[in-house]
């Protein structure tokens, strides 16, 4: 199992979304996601968050909210613990990265994008201002087959 961070950076009612169309052998190929990546040895979630955001965007985060932890289980990929953050307090000049094409998407339009089904669940939790949560998402191939929020199974996977 490995650990990652993911951050939804907000500005003027928009989230910075990364359309993953540049990287070869990308498990997120074609999907829209936030900004983040894998932990380096001995990094804390916050250190990984700040490093990944700066590497992928050029932005320096000044503050952030630690919103949740998501456990991904897959029959195709290694299991992952993803630490989920949001931030609207940043500075710097944007620069592109080799992972995808970034675009500021109006928050109300994000659900119209090509997203993982599990991402739709945690994005709704972010939008509902749910306090810190634990979400487990189980995939078979690209299909979400189980979701558990704070240890309880979600019967409807789209909620």
Automatic annotation (TrEMBL):
GO molecular-function term, one example from the UniProt record: metal ion binding
Any one GO CC term of the record: cytoplasm
InterPro entries for the chain: Mutator_MutX_prot, NUDIX_hydrolase-like_dom_sf, NUDIX_hydrolase_CS, NUDIX_hydrolase_dom
Source organism, top-level taxon: Bacteria
Alphabetical list of Gene3D superfamilies matching this protein: Nucleoside Triphosphate Pyrophosphohydrolase (3.90.79.10)
Family: Belongs to the Nudix hydrolase family.
Record's protein name: 8-oxo-dGTP diphosphatase
Protein source organism: Moryella indoligenes
Organism classification: Bacteria, Bacillati, Bacillota, Clostridia, Lachnospirales
């Amino acid at each position: 199992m490995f650990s990652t961070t993911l951050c939804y950076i907000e500005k003027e009612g928009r989230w910075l979304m990364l359309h993953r169309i540049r990287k070869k052998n990308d498990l997120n190929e074609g999907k829209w996601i936030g900004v983040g990546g894998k932990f380096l040895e001995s990094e804390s979630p916050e250190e990984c968050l700040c490093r990944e955001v700066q590497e992928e965007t050029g932005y320096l985060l000044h503050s952030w909210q630690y919103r949740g932890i998501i456990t991904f289980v897959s029959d195709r990929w290694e299991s992952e613990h993803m630490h989920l953050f949001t931030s609207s307090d940043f500075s710097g000049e944007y620069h592109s990265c080799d992972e995808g094409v970034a675009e500021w998407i109006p928050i109300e339009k994000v659900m119209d994008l090509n997203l993982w089904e599990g991402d739709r669940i945690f994005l709704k939790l972010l939008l509902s201002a749910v306090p810190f949560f634990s979400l487990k998402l189980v995939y078979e191939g690209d299909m979400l087959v189980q979701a558990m929020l704070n240890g309880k199974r979600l019967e409807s996977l789209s909620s």
